[in-house]
Design brief:
There is one protein chain. The chain is 69% helix and 0% strand. The radius of gyration is 17 Å and the shape is globular. It has ten helices and no strands.
């Protein structure tokens, strides 16, 4: 269990720092007002669609890992600078072991930007790390309502369900994640017979 948890935590730690090249080159930042928001939203959706299509057709683990990292970078970009500052603060607090402080920051983020899926996902992860599985699953549901392809949330759901002894539901959650990202390490958690099912 621990290696998968470490893998999940490492994947979720791919913060997009302010001022990074990807942040600076975002073309929507040269627009203003509603135009910038609309352009950024369309650009983000198009990038994710292209990345997910490539991920589903990836040739092997190395290719899939590169594409998955690119997806995480998009997910970690918050809707605006204020939301990004809160998101980054939550990550800093989590890395410092201040889970309650990180959750408090994410409470604000999810209240003020309820359509930002990664805010919910980060809080779900923290609840999971605290063993607060019901709260984590509730946040995972919010993530998947906003981004059904979120393989991190899907695998997180599977991990919780395995911990709860709900093996059939857990296997189905992992299979759903593998339909999006066919080279997830969590494939190894599947019960015998599930791994042979077509994706």
């Amino acid at each position: 269990m621990l290696p998968i948890l470490v893998l999940l935590s490492a994947a979720l730690a791919l913060a997009l720092p302010p001022g990074s090249p990807a942040h600076a080159q975002d073309p929507s930042r040269s627009l203003s007002g509603d135009g910038a928001a609309a352009a950024g939203s369309l650009d983000r959706a198009a990038r994710l669609d292209a990345l997910f299509a490539a991920l589903a057709a990836s040739d092997g683990p190395a290719d899939a890992r590169t594409l998955a990292t690119a997806i995480w970078v998009v997910w970690f970009k918050a809707p605006d600078d204020e939301a990004q500052a809160l998101f980054n603060e939550a990550l800093v607090r989590r890395r410092a072991g201040d889970f309650d402080g990180a959750i408090a920051v994410l409470d604000t983020l999810t209240q003020r930007w309820p359509d930002y899926a990664e805010g919910w996902n980060q809080r779900a992860t923290l609840f999971y790390l605290q063993g607060r599985f019901a709260l984590s699953l509730a946040d995972v549901s919010r993530v998947l309502a906003l981004e059904p392809r979120h393989f991190g949330a899907l695998t997180g759901r599977g991990l919780i369900l395995f911990r709860q002894g709900r093996r059939d539901a857990a296997n189905r959650a992992i299979l759903e994640a593998l339909r999006v990202h066919p080279f997830l390490a969590e494939r190894a958690l599947l019960d015998p017979g599930y791994g042979e099912q077509p994706l």
